[in-house]
């Protein structure tokens, strides 16, 4: 009797908006084929059928599981396949070997097969993804509202004297309310146009503020259901908790250890020693939004939490600068939030 062993296959995918380019490798890295597929549910099925035609698919390395590859990653994970997040090929390899979609797909497959890429895909199928989509909208609304208010203040600075005297000294909230309530009457052209412009900007700012409020009303229950222990930590507000959850993703396997989480947030110092000099330098990599969230938590704690204030006083007496102390505290906060993130995922 002849026993036929199924060939182990590793896939690699270079993702784009309209098409995905896939490559298939055998167990020793031999190239089995390269093919292109549309970025539709039917295209995802065709891609997997194509990989299965070579043997048993053990893993698939995908570039961009958090963007163009999110749909394909969801499809494969729903079928129980191992999906590995692959970073783009390093520049030195691209200079040597060239750059093309098939080459990028082959590189992704080789990274997954060799173990060079081991990260689990971020996932776009849970409550963290719902939080992320709301935060994207909130962030843009907050940015637009700030820009609108700055435009209002600039207009007030150059407005006719009677308009400037009326609202120049107002606080932000009263400025928006006063401008939105203006009822311009036709008259001198500059005065009339300025009042109309201020009224429209004020109404825009009020609309954006209401939009932010509605989003906060939806975010609150999602965060409380997903990570109540994280929100209970000192200095961790809804925005900071949301950003940290988004950085972690829906899948806990992405964070192999507390040290890996610190590297993901860019708060793990990098060795920078040479000869007799032993030192470490700031890590400029990692998720900068998560890094900013840790910074915001640290500043809040430095203002009111007795434990943090005592630490700051002790390290200041030891000769550390404020910036150095904040860097140390960000690392400590990353360590503190890690188990709460793991338990919430």
TrEMBL record:
One Gene Ontology term of the molecular function aspect: DNA binding
Domain of life, source organism: Bacteria
Protein species of origin: uncultured Acidimicrobiales bacterium
Protein name: Mobile element protein
Pfam families: DEDD_Tnp_IS110 (PF01548), Transposase_20 (PF02371)
Residues annotated as domain Transposase IS110-like N-terminal: 12-156
Domain Transposase IS116/IS110/IS902 C-terminal residue range list: 230-312
GO biological process, one term: DNA transposition
């Amino acid at each position: 009797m002849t026993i036929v062993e199924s060939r182990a296959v590793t896939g690699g995918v270079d993702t784009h908006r309209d098409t995905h380019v896939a490559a298939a490798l055998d167990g020793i890295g031999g190239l089995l084929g390269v093919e292109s597929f549309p970025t539709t549910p039917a295209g995802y099925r065709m891609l997997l059928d194509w990989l299965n035609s070579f043997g048993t698919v053990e893993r698939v390395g995908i570039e961009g599981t958090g963007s163009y590859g999110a749909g394909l990653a969801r499809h494969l994970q729903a079928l129980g396949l191992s999906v590995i997040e692959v970073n783009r090929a390093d520049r030195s390899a691209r200079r040597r070997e060239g750059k093309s979609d098939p080459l990028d797909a082959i590189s992704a497959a080789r990274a997954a097969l060799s173990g060079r890429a081991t990260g689990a895909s971020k996932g776009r199928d849970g409550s963290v993804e719902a939080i992320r989509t709301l935060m994207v909208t909130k962030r843009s609304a907050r940015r637009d509202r700030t820009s609108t208010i700055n435009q209002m203040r600039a207009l007030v600075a150059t407005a006719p004297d009677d308009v400037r005297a009326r609202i120049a000294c107002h606080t932000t909230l009263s400025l928006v309310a006063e401008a939105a309530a203006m009822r311009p009457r036709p008259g001198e052209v500059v005065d009339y146009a300025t009042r109309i412009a201020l009224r429209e900007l004020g109404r825009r700012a009020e609309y954006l503020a209401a939009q932010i409020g509605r989003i906060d009303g939806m975010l609150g229950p999602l965060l409380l259901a997903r990570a109540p222990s994280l929100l209970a930590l000192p200095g961790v507000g809804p925005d900071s908790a949301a950003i940290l959850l988004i950085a972690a993703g829906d899948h806990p396997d992405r964070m192999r250890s507390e040290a890996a989480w610190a590297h993901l947030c860019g708060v793990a110092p990098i060795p920078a020693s040479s000869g007799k000099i032993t030192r470490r330098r700031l890590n400029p990599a990692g998720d900068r939004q998560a890094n900013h969230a840790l910074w915001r938590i640290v500043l809040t704690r430095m203002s009111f939490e007795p434990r943090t204030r005592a630490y700051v006083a002790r390290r200041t007496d030891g000769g550390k600068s404020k910036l150095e102390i904040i860097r140390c505290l960000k690392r400590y906060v990353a360590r503190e939030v890690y188990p709460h993130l793991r338990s919430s995922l």
